[in-house]
Amino acid sequence: MQTPSRPVALLSGPAAFGGAQRYLLSLLRHLPAALVALPPVDAQLAAGAEATGRPRRTAQGPAPQQVADAVAATGARAVHVNCTDPVAEVPLLRAALATGLPVTATVHMTDRYARTPAAADLPAVYAALGGVVAPSRPIAEHLVREHGVPAARVHHVPNGVAPPPPVALRERPAGSPLRVGCLARLTRQKGLDVLLDAVRALPAGTVEVVVAGEGREAAALAAAARDLPVVFRGFAADVHGFLADLDAYVQPSREDALPLALLEAAGAGLPCAATRVGDVPEHLDGAVLLVEPGDAAALAAALARLAADAGLRARLARCGRERVLASHTDAAMAACTAAVLAPAWGS
């Protein structure tokens, strides 16, 4: 596919490291681009950017001139904003537009969980962008329906991941609990409270759960899980190592696109259960167990099925890995992103 003939500055706000930042690093690896980050820069993002060998700059601050100076230092001719939280990043979008360069963005989530006064500014900001990438069809439809972004400027590009090495499924002693993991920001959007309710509904000894991630609801979730077989281990720098220590994976999101963590787990050959959100049903139906978002009873039933049926686990492990490797690599995602945004970037 076509790639941009001119360098692009990938602009990132000061969010904690997560799926949106892994997405950004994928673009950085595969496109002729430079990273421009606002302080404080997450250590994992900085290390990942350094490993790509691409140029990177840290803006002195969030003011438009500070952002413009950092972008100019990269020699970039266009700016692509990575919007982890579109409402919180309205100032970042405005700063990018103030550079006078062509500006595009990837919007990783809707503003459904961020209804603040700043949300009223989104239609005007989006209207000034040359193009918007939406990692799921529901996000694309939301941008057009709720914010009036012309459909021709909204591009649905499903997420992809670097092909993960396969994990060796652990030998479980008879009667031992299924070790289930989840990688997610600890926010309401990710549905960890629903996962706790599901675990609470299961007979003792069915599962043990390990959650990797950080976020504003960490203390509340830890308190709610006090009497459950659930461990919150904080940020996981070694994602493959985390996945390799599991029997299965669960993604209980209330709203999501096509979660990178789910793709990584399925691609590594772990049997997975997930909610019917974003592009998950379209791309992973039949390769993961699907339940409705917010339905703790259905999620508990899915986890019980995984715990009881070794044949089901083996089939999902095989199908999930095949599906991800065939259709959801980050190289293909980056190439498609470059192709749809090339006109806006002036390529």
Please provide a written account of the structure:
The chain is an alpha/beta fold and 347 residues long. It has two domains: 8-160 and 330-345, Glycogen Phosphorylase B (Rossmann fold, 3-Layer(aba) Sandwich), CATH 3.40.50.2000; 178-327, 3-Layer(aba) Sandwich (Rossmann fold). It is 41% helix and 16% strand. It is built from 14 helices and 13 strands. The strands form two sheets. Strands 3-2-1-4-5-6-7 form a seven-stranded parallel β-sheet, sandwiched between helices. Strand 1 (8-12), helix 1 (19-30) and strand 2 (33-37) form a beta-alpha-beta unit. Helix 7 crosses helix 12 (296-308) and helix 10 crosses helix 13 (310-327).
In short, what is this structure?
41% of the residues lie in helices and 16% in strands.
Looking at this protein, list some descriptive labels.
single chain, 347 residues, alpha/beta, Rossmann fold, 2 domains, 7-stranded parallel β-sheet, 6-stranded parallel β-sheet, 14 helices, elongated
CATH topology tier name of the largest domain = Rossmann fold
Total domain units: 2
Which parts are unreliable, with pLDDT below 50 for 5 consecutive residues or more?
Answer: none
CATH C-level category of the largest domain:
Alpha Beta
What is the correct CATH architecture of the largest domain?
A: 3-Layer(aba) Sandwich
Q: What amount of the residues lies in strands?
A: 15-25%
**Number of strand segments:** 13
How does the overall form come out from the CA principal axes?
elongated
- How far apart, in Å, are the first and last alpha carbons? 13 Å
According to CATH, the homologous superfamily of the largest domain is Glycogen Phosphorylase B
Determine Rg (CA atoms, Å): 20 Å
What string, H for helix and E for strand, traces the elements in order? Answer: EHEHEHEHEHEHEEHEHEHEHEHEHHH
Helical content stands at 40-55%
Provide the structure class. Answer: alpha/beta
Average residue pLDDT = 93
Tally of separate helices: 14
- Neighbour order of strands in the largest sheet: 3-2-1-4-5-6-7
Summarize the biggest pleated sheet: 7 strands, parallel
